[in-house]
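I'll show an entry:

:::
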Amino acid sequence: MAKETRKFWKNEDGAVTIDWVVITAGIVGLVIAIIPLVEEPVGTVSGRTQATLDAADATTTFGG
């Protein structure tokens, strides 16, 4: 029994998995925290691009 217990405590396979879970959770947390900071500027650029494309489409005549 003692031999099996020592073998169990020396086995580090699960520790690597826990490390990756913690790292992944940290990255996901950072992404969730950054989204509100990036959302408005991206929306502004997207809106300006759409307005420019709409204006270019309105001034261009096709086949005429």
User: Anything to note?
Assistant: The two ends are 90 Å apart (CA to CA).
